[in-house]
Structure formats: structure tokens, C-alpha cells
Amino acid sequence: MTADTTPPIATREHTVDGFVREFLRELNFGQGVDLTRASANDKYLAMARTVRHYLMTRWLSTLRRQGQLQAKSVAYLSAEFLLGRQLDNALLAADLQDIVREGLASLGIDLDELREEEVEPGLGNGGLGRLAACFIDSLATMNVPCIGYGIRYEYGIFRQTFVDGWQVEKPDDWLRLGSPWEFPHPESAVTVSFGGSVEQYQDDDGVVKRRWVPGWSVQGVPYNYMVPGYENGRVNTLRLWSAQATRAFDLQIFNAGDYAEAVRAQTFAENISKVLYPEDSTPQGKELRLQQQYFFVACSIKDFVDQVLPEDFDLHDLPERIVFQLNDTHPVIAVPELMRVLVDEKGWDWADAWSVTQRCFAYTCHTLLPEALEVWPVDLLGRLLPRHLEIIYRINDEFLAELREAYPDDELRVRRMSIIAEYPVRAVRMAYLATVAGTKVNGVAALHSQLLRDKVLDDFAGYWPDKFTNVTNGVTPRRFLRLSNPGLSTLVTEAIGDGWVTDLDQLRGLEPLADDAEFRRRFREVKHANKLRIADVLAHRDGITVDPDTMFDVMVKRLHEYKRQTLKLLHIVSLYEKVSTGKLAIGDVTPRTFAFGAKAAPGYVMAKQIIGLINAVGATINEDPALEGRLRVAFPANYNVTLAETLIPAADLSEQISLAGKEASGTGNMKFMLNGALTIGTDDGANVEIRELVGDENFFLFGLDEPQVAELVDRGYHPSAYYETNVDLRHALDLIASGAFSGGDRTVFEPIVSNLLNEDRFLALADFQAYVDAQAKVDAAYADPEAWTRSAVLNVARGGFFSSDRSMRDYIDRIWHTPPVPPA
Ligand code: 9GP
């Protein structure tokens, strides 16, 4: 027998005493303080580091096993990962919740107080980034090898504050107090270049080739994060890149004595990963953004090819070893980058390189708004990445030649499908490039995928019908039910066991309990407790008072006109107007708390106006004694993942009221459903599937559907006609215009009113009456608590489809073909 020479991996003792010993060691040796003098932050950091030790053994053995097996992996390329707080998830994955609570209590420390010390990394804008975080959680839990690649922004999504009701952005300094969940590896930094020019040269065989002579470079330093699977021994890796000046560059200038210039060079390089672009759905055509995109994909490809793969790996086998999933168009520049690596650096011929590249990528589109499909002017691209632009031109030339063969008599169609747009400026259409390069293109909900096929990418779908598929989004049940709603989790587990945590379809087992009066009573108790919990959070966090005995009617999402927060506002203002003028007795109004959460992109003027109006309406209504506290608006600033985790479980009504055909999917809608809220919504995004699953009788559908919207727009939409003919709508708009919510100043909200009356791009006025009618049905349904609870239970029971584990199964079956690799 030969001795096992594999070095052992350290383990930790999974007991209260073991934890306490480790924790004190971290506090004393890691933080350099003793318990009596330790600040809350010291204790939090020591606890977090102790907890991560418990996951380390799993992480190291996952990496070791992956090194041995070289199983096919997913590389999820995403400019955003909106992780949320890490501690609770780590405790859950490592089955440490009780041990840590007890261990800390034995030292007189309250776990819940320490939890509040954690600052969430806001490395994403909203749904897209949060989806990426859910996906990597699911892949780890399902034992699928995955590495997430993204950017370690020094400043994440801005911290929103309100000053006199108006949004004021503050920097999100999430790293200030230390970041215990990351592992920097400066020794593994990679160099990424920009600018310069392309030169022609002859290789050793006299073949004329082209290569890039870059103008300047930066370093990408990897920071690793653990992505633990739920109680399964696997920990995958998320690798986020931070930009730094290259040492050579730095030293050269420094040695020449120009300290100021050296610092400037450093700042210039570090700017690349300095701040997340706070845009959601609309791209900012900024050079820095393209730098960010290229920076992280170039680092990631280099990392994968040079560090992750074994030295002797034959890159011709790359498609059997990896699939690079392009999360929206942000990482699409990875396509020409892989071509450049294979052709220029590895010396492959073009056809070989293209054949491998085409089999390595797949593309997810997350939008339907034409303005959100990124397009890079060739001037900019050519300046920043001249060799990549050449490669894109060649990809396009060959693609157009192929199309001309397929459609010899249809040059118009060929031009429509060109990766290069000619108007208004010559530019690269990144979605087209991704479609041409990817094995598959998917939308994120059934309706969205259909509209992609039929409208946005219809020429491509006609040419490659099999390339297009759908994967409906999902959310992780670990974070968004098990952790965020302990009351409901316990109730569900008591009823059907805890298998649902990793197999959410098991929630179906709750269906019969919808008819069980005792179960419904306990379900209501949980909801009420969740309302008390959020009331407490809002009181302390925001100084906002809410009444837990009212219906919680919640609209939380980015502020965007297509999402139609204004429609919600018109409903509130209309109710207020009717009560104030005596048309409606306050006693007949269902007591409601209207909760909003929404950040507006800093440069999106109309969105910021709407925030001002929500706060102004809230301030007026909340202080009007005539309403007897029956209607209140609660708009906490800085809605984020942490707040979502307490707010969503308390909701009765989920507002998903985007204009049909505009919201690709939505994922908040799924979180609400799983937490027992009923949806009022349009036939849009994943609402369509929610309604199909839960049934019409448990969903408040209203408004135009997508074909009706298209028809109305084609016919010519005149919002003012609705104003003229609908008295309630007129009164509501007039009240806003009168200055009633702006201290009599009629100019303040005039832009919103006139935009609605004259343009109303997202047809809020057309859907107003249908929305108000649907809200009347909500009131009627809510008046019968037993029937309402029955519907709420059925929403939970039928929500299993929206697990991100199911989304991952669909990606694996339809796109990735990456089988699970159970731990050794
Ligand atoms: O707007 C979509 C949202 O509907 C979807 O749920 C989310 C995740 O797929 O992606 C959003 N898209 C973007 O943020 C930008 O394309």
C-alpha cells in the first residue's frame, strides 16, 4: 500500500465550544482586541471570519476535486452580482445557526445585534444582479461546477437619501469597515491592455498576420468569494476583479521623480473598478463603462485559460470544459477577446478559433426596451480596443456572406442583421454579436422569449430557429423564504417537512392546507408577525410609522416609467381626492399601507421627479387627520436586498403593474408570491406564468395585453382623451397639478402631469380605469380574510416553479449540459 501524499485540509470542530474557541482566537489574534474592549464591528468581523473558516474545508476540497476531475463548468460572466448580506447564508449553508447563536450568547453577545453590523455589498442595480446571485447559489446547492466572474466595485449602487422628499445620492462605501468575506490574491493579478494600434507582421513561416500593440495596461487583482451550497459540502467560487496600476508603469514614473503623476496613473487605473454604473435597463454610453466591461472579461478569460485549466490542456477541447454565459450584453466583448487570444496569442487559424468560440458562449437577453440593447460606436471601440474592432468586422463580414447565400434576393434583411449599425452613427450592436456567437440565446420569461423571437431578434430567430430558447427566471428559496421568512418556513416545514428548501416543488403539498382553517389561522399569524417585524425595522431605520393591522400594498423595484409607479400614485391620489371631497366615506376605505421602495438612476430626471411626488403625496396623506390613519404611504429610502428580506414577507399585495411587453420578467413578483402575497398585475413578464400557475381567481389581472398595446400605439395613442373622458382620472391629475402636494406651487410636479397628458409613453392613463377596478376587487377580496388567506396559501403552494434551482435545471438541460458533480 502506498502512503497517501495528498496534504490534509484543516477542519473545525462543529460544536458550541469549538466555535467559541475559534471566535475568541479571531477576536484576539485577528482583530487584536479582547472581548471587553471589542467594538461591535470587531465582534462582527471576528464572527464572520470564524464562520468562513467552517466553510473553508468544503471550499478547498471542492477546488481540489474540480482540479482532479476537470468537469465541465459554467463561467457566469456578469457585470453585476447583487449578493446581499453574506452572514446568514453562510450560517445556513454550514448548519451553524444554533451553534453560533448559543456560542455568542455564552459570551454575552446577541447574534441578531451583530448581524446588523454587516453592510451588504451592493454590486448590482436590481433584478439582473440579484438574479446572478440567485443563480450561483443554486448551482452550488445543486453541485454544479460554476465560477462567477465580475467586478469588485469599490463603490456599489449609491446609497439613496431623501432631502425634502427628493433623492440625493451618497457613495456606497461598503468596504470602509472591512470586508471579511473576500480573499484577495494580488499575486495572481493579470494584465489587461487598452488602446494603441494594430500592426502587420510576418510570422516565422512568412505568413502575414496582425497583432495588437496596446497603448496602456492595468492589472486585475482577483478577489475570491465563497459561494456555499446548502448543506451539501460544496463551495463554488465567485471571482471579482479589482483594477490597479501596473507596477512597471508606476515605478517608471515614480523613479523619474514625478510623484504626482504616479498617483494620477494609479487613480486612472483604479477608476476602472471604482464605481458601479447606476443604470438599470438603459445603458450609459460611457467609455469607462466599456473599459469596465473589457477589463473584467479579459481578466476572466485569461484567468480561466492560464490559471484554472491545467497547463497541458488542449484548447480545442474548451467547449467540453466550459460554457461562458453572457449575462446581458455587458460581457459580450468577451467574444472578440477569446478570438484574439486564440488567433493572435495561440496562433490558431481563424476558422478553428471561430468554431471553438461559437461553442463556448451562450447569451441571455434581459430586456425588451430597444434603448437598453447596448451599441458601441466604432470610433470609441476602435480607439479603446482596435484589434477587437477588426475581429468584430471580420466576424460580421463572414456572417453577412453566409446570409447573402441564404437570402440572395433579400439584401435589406442582410443589412438589418448586420452586427454593425450604420445609423445614427456607425456602431457595434452587442446583442447581435452575442446572437451570432452564442450557441443559444434565451429570454428570461415565456412572454419575453416569445417577443424576442417575434420582434426584437426576429430576423435571427427566422435564420436560427433552434438557437432561441426560454428560461424563466427564478429566486433562491434559501434566501427568499428559508432565511427571510422564518415564521412561514417553520410553518411550512411542520406541514410538509423541510425537503422544499432544495426541492421547491414540494410546496405543492401545502395545497390541501389552503382549506384547513387552523392552518390558515397560523398563516395569518405569521403574516401579522412579519408586519410587526417590518414596522419595527421601519421605525428604527427610517423613523416611519406603519400600522400592522392594515393591508400591506407593496411596490418595490427600480424607479422607471415603464414600471409605472405613477399608475400606483394615481390610484392613491384618486382615493385621497374622493375622501377629501366627500365622495367616499373614510369608513368605507380599506385601511392600507402603501409601501414603496425605489432608486432612480441619478441622471434620470423624470424618475427623480416621480420619487419627489411619491414623497410629497405621502407627506400630505400621512398628515391629514381626515384619513384617520387608514391610508398611509411608507417610502423608506435606500431599498436594498436587506430591506427586501424583511419587507416582502410582510406584504399582502404585490404590485407588478408594468406596461405589457416591457418588463422582461421581474423577480420581485416571484419573491412576493412565495411569501404569500397576492399579485395585482398586468399580463407582462413572469406575471403571465404566475397567473397561469396560481389561477385567475388568485390573481388580480388588469390592463391591456401586449397585442392590445401594440395596436393602440399603431392606431395613435392620445392620453389626453382618457383625461377628458374619465372623471376620476381628471380629478386625480388636476389635484396634482393644483399644487396640493407641493405647498400650492403648481410648477413643481407640472413636468409629470404634462408628460402624462401629452406623451405617456407607457400608457398609464390608458390602464388607469382597469387598474382602479382591479383594486376594488382587491378590497372586496381582502374583506374576507378566510378567502384571502386561502388564496395566499395557494400562491405559496404553487410557487415552486420559481425556484432558481429550476431555472438552473433548465439552463443545464437546454444550454449548458453541465452535469452535477457530487462531493467526494
Ligand atoms: O428588466 C429586467 C427584469 O425584468 C428582469 O427580471 C431582470 C432579470 O432577468 O433583468 C432586468 N434587466 C435589466 O436590468 C437590464 O437588461
Could you explain how this protein is built, in words?
This protein has 33 helices and 23 strands. It is α/β, with parallel strands linked by helices. The protein folds into three domains: 17-69 and 95-117; 70-85 and 120-439, Rossmann fold; 517-798, 3-Layer(aba) Sandwich (Rossmann fold), CATH 3.40.50.2000. Strands 1, 2, 5, 6, 9, 10, 11, 12, 16 and 17 form a ten-stranded mixed sheet that branches. A six-stranded parallel sheet has the order 20-19-18-21-22-23, sandwiched between helices. Helix 23 links the parallel strand 19 and strand 20. 49% of the residues are buried. It binds N-(hydroxyacetyl)-beta-D-glucopyranosylamine (9GP). The site of N-(hydroxyacetyl)-beta-D-glucopyranosylamine (9GP) has 18 residues, from helix 6. N-(hydroxyacetyl)-beta-D-glucopyranosylamine (9GP) binds at residues 126-128, 131, 280-281, 328, 366-367, 372, 444, 473, 663-667, 685. Its EC number is 2.4.1.1.
